[in-house]
Write a structure and sequence with these properties.
The structure is a homodimer of 272-residue chains. The first copy, chain A, has helices at residues 30-38, 50-57, 61-73, 88-94, 98-118, 160-167, 171-178, 193-206, 251-267; strands spanning 77-79, 84-86, 121-128, 131-138, 153-155, 209-212, 219-228, 231-241. With 272 residues, chain A is of the alpha+beta class. Chain A has two domains: 26-94, Arc Repressor Mutant, subunit A, CATH 1.10.10; 98-267, Beta-Lactamase. In chain A, strand 3 and strand 4 (131-138) form a beta hairpin. In chain A, helix 2 (50-57) crosses helix 3, helix 5 packs antiparallel against helix 9 (251-267) and helix 6 packs across helix 8. The first copy, chain A, starts with 29 loop residues before the first helix and ends in a 5-residue tail after the last helix. Chains A, B: One of its GO terms (molecular function) is DNA-binding transcription factor activity.
Chain lengths: 272, 272
């Protein structure tokens, strides 16, 4: 199982950004350096100059230039008016990853139902190590903006989907999380291990979990697990402004959608 | 501008899959081989055995094994019960590509409106070379299934979004397309250059384009351009079963959404 040693946001450093490949020649070879160059980009950045790429990667400018030209040839970077940007070939490759393709295809109609019923912001998330990774996000004109970007990460313990994913991931992982300092994204993030343990037990009993401004100020959410033959594969959530009616009123909606999606996925046979 | 020399489906071979990087040592180095390994996967494949990876890439098994282990270390592959599958780190990287991040964020509320108003399947697409690449797709329980996968490609001339993208891409590109044999995905695909030229002129006049079972039997669609300061950046479409009422009845809906999205994107200032 992949583990992530980053406790907080890790937008530009994926789970395997730094550790050397077990059989490869460490960080040194051209594949490692190429991936490091791609990971230098942050969300929303259209292009970076060679100087900035060199600074972020710690690679000499001449190396960055040679690598970037090769990545352009491979379709993973593209030339920008100034410098280089990520290329459409990288987007195409990313869309082939099964987490996205399979789960999203099955989940999308249920996410649409939730959006249509509530007009709030809807998330679909999976666990990777000690993080939540957002697989999909639906938002209309009026739904609240959230720190959850598709493909982005947040700590498991600071989000509704994360606590739900953790609650069903087995005692071993829960013990591992509780043994470490709990990350704090806001003043409301749960950082007391005893309180978190109680909350995880309550989530397993009720089938829903809450985030009460624990990931971002002003933002609450209610989340529910997607289970395939008893194994958790994802979580759904509805996010609302914290000053509105409490998200508990939306618990039956998210629970209904997660039960329906769980049923559809279980019918398709055990995954793996 | 990147060009794609594949006339038909090109799911596993992106625009730059084969050509050697201009400055790199051709197909030979470990970065090229690593990308070739990632591109060996096809949509929906959870895992591939070493033997199959070796067959598809033309690389010796020992090389594939060493590369795969390194890609696991980088988070771009993951070990499967048998063989290797694409890793979540690749999904994360792909989501950083601006085509996805910026356009999709702005477009999503308008796609949601179209879905809610029609309950049909909605697409957002961009042009890459002579192909359409699908940036997003919304589908409920009842919407028709389409050959358009997010991150997948279809020829410009066989789809509603593609013809719309082509119609506004300038006479130079139109001439280039018309000078080549036109791809045929179904018996209805337009393969006569004169007929296609007339249709592109009509699309520019009307602001909407149609696909009448030209990409897949039984599937029709109506599409409209997203223009930022007169420059085309994307196209929206609504897909319906061909046996239903003609998609013309949905032309005002898709036109309305594309005009609204164009306005929002133009207000945000010239992109690049």
């Amino acid at each position: 199982m992949p583990r992530n040693d980053t406790a907080g946001f890790a937008d530009t450093d994926g789970p395997g950004a730094s550790p050397p490949g077990p059989a490869g020649p460490g960080r040194g070879n051209v594949l490692d350096r190429g991936v490091r160059l791609l990971r230098a980009f942050r969300p929303g950045e259209e292009a970076l100059r060679l100087t900035e790429l060199s600074r972020r990667t710690g690679l000499p400018k001449a190396t960055v230039h040679r690598l970037a030209e090769q990545l352009v040839g491979l379709g993973l970077l593209q030339r920008a008016p100034v410098g280089f940007g990520l290329g459409i070939g990288l987007f195409e490759l990313g869309e082939l990853v099964p987490v996205k393709l399979r789960l999203r295809e099955a989940a999308l109609p249920f996410l649409q139902d939730l959006y249509e019923a509530t007009h709030e912001t809807i998330h679909l998330a999976v666990r990777d190590g000690l993080d939540v990774v957002y697989a999909d996000r639906i938002r209309g004109h009026t739904g609240i903006d959230t720190p959850a970007r598709v493909g982005g990460r947040l700590p498991l313990t600071c989000t509704g989907v994360g606590k739900v994913l953790l609650a069903w991931s087995g005692q071993e992982l829960i013990d591992e999380v509780l043994a470490q300092p709990l990350p704090r994204l806001t003043a409301h993030s749960v950082t007391d291990p005893g309180r978190l343990a109680d909350e995880l037990a309550r989530i397993r009993r009720c089938g829903v979990g809450y985030d009460r401004q624990e990931a971002a100020p002003g933002l609450s959410c209610v989340a529910s697990p997607v289970l395939v033959h008893g194994r958790i594969v994802a979580a759904l959530s509805i996010s609302v402004p914290a000053h509105q009616a409490p998200p508990a009123r939306l618990a039956p909606a998210v629970r209904t959608a997660s039960l329906a999606l769980s049923r559809v996925l279980s019918r398709a046979g055990p995954r793996r």
